[in-house]
Amino acid sequence: MQADFRRIHGPKIRLAILMLNIQDYLFMGAFTRTHGVQGALMLRPQGMEAEEMPEMEWVFVEIDGLPVPFFVNEVRLMQADKIIVSLDAILTEQRARELVGCKVFIQAKGKKGKALQATGLPDIKGYTVIDKTRGELGKVVEIIDIAGNPLLKIISDKKEMLIPAHRDIILEISDKKRSVLIQAPDGLTEL
Question: What is the DSSP letter of 116?
Fold first, then answer.
């Protein structure tokens, strides 16, 4: 049975998960079976020994073709080719069984990326938002966490705008330029 990220993460699906790209992550291996009754999973590393595994605070589990982030509670070395991993949101053997066979990734070192907030978006407060057609709109002052529809709160010249943080609207986030390039639908920035 393939895991369903909607069931694992509950009704508050983070649309921002869709903005993550699996190619930006380093393949670590796959969960091969459950371990115990409290939701731990056995990870079999691919292309490296268990002792060579980097420290993991977050892992990304491929569910429905998408990299879904999980906070790592504990990592224990079992054998040279087996690691026991406990994930924050997986607390029962039944929930863990849903992840057996899923691929596991971590963010590759040297890749651009910022720490994810609770919304699943990188922290882009203070970044300048530039619309592809209308030019500079203002600065992101807050990311509002609305279930399934996070919003960017943008302020410019005493005007406040709320722009959905959707993969069809956000085209690019540049850490170097501290900017967010968007293509807002007609009328969205005039509200």
Answer: B
pTM greater than 0.85 = no
| pLDDT tens sequence across 9-41 | 443 334 344 445 555 677 888 999 999 889 999
How many domains, the chain? 2
pLDDT in tens, 108-152: 543 334 444 444 566 788 999 999 988 999 999 988 876 567 788
Which of 49, 76, 107 corresponds to the end of one domain?
107
> Where does a domain end: 72, 107, 142?
107
Instruction: State how far the Cα of 24 lies from the Cα of 20, in Å rounded to an integer.
Output: 8
Helices (H), the chain: 5-8, 93-97
Q: Contact 67/17 with Cβ under 8 angstroms?
A: yes
Domain that holds residue 57: 5-107
